[in-house]
Amino acid sequence: MNELLKQYVERIQPLDETASKEAAAHIANLTVPPGSLGKLESLAIRLAGITGETKPLFERKEVIIMAADHGVCEEGVSAFPQEVTPQMILNFLSGGAAVNVLSRLAGADIVCVDIGVKSDLAHPQLVSRKVRYGTANMAKGPAMTREEAEQSILTGIAVVEEAVAQGVRIFVTGEMG
Predict the structure, then answer these.
(1) Are residues 87 and 47 in the same domain?
(2) Which residues of 90-112 are buried (b: 16+ CB within 10 A; e: fewer)?
């Protein structure tokens, strides 16, 4: 495994049990019937465990869309042709997709990253981090080399680290391609 990637993996910590318990106790003291908040209760407890804060605040939020084309599309397994990928990316960047509506409602910014789209794209808001022009067809051989896969993971980490440096505290991830 790539040494830098190994260092990131080693930094992964378990949930903070104390913060999780404190969040659960706080929720139990709310004047609502137990369980009435549904999945929000377990999500709040989990976010407390992840952040180590009983009542974490997420003032800056971001949706990160990693875009790439997949060579296996030539086998007819995709609902849409690869030509849709650049069109959708431009739609995300212009604010016209469903994810944009949901992001606006949540007060989250959208970041779209070209990590492997099979064509060249230009847009002032596009983050260009192309590892390669689409993957190979995995039905005929490896989709990418191990080094490319590791580079892709490290690219995702770098995008998140840049956002964290700008004050982003919570992320939603998505993909296109």
Answers:
(1) no
(2) bbbbeeebebbeebeeeebbbbb
List the beta bridge partners of residue 176: 67
d(CA 175, CA 172): 10
The domain tally of the chain equals 2
- The per-residue pLDDT for 32 is 86
pTM (2 d.p.): 0.88
The neighbour count for residue 67, using CB atoms within 10 Å, is 23
Residues 20, 44, single domain; the answer is yes
Cα–Cα dist 7/24, whole Å: 32
For residue 113, give the 3-state DSSP assignment: strand
Pairwise CA distance, residues 170 & 115, whole Å: 21
Tokens, residue 93: 């960047």
Residue 148, amino acid? E
CA distances from 67 to 24, 54, 89, 127 (A): 37, 34, 8, 10
Averaged pLDDT, groups of 10, the chain, 177 residues long: 91 96 94 88 96 95 96 90 93 96 96 96 96 96 96 96 96 93
Residue 139: the pLDDT is: 96
Query: In terms of domains, do 47 and 128 share one?
Result: no
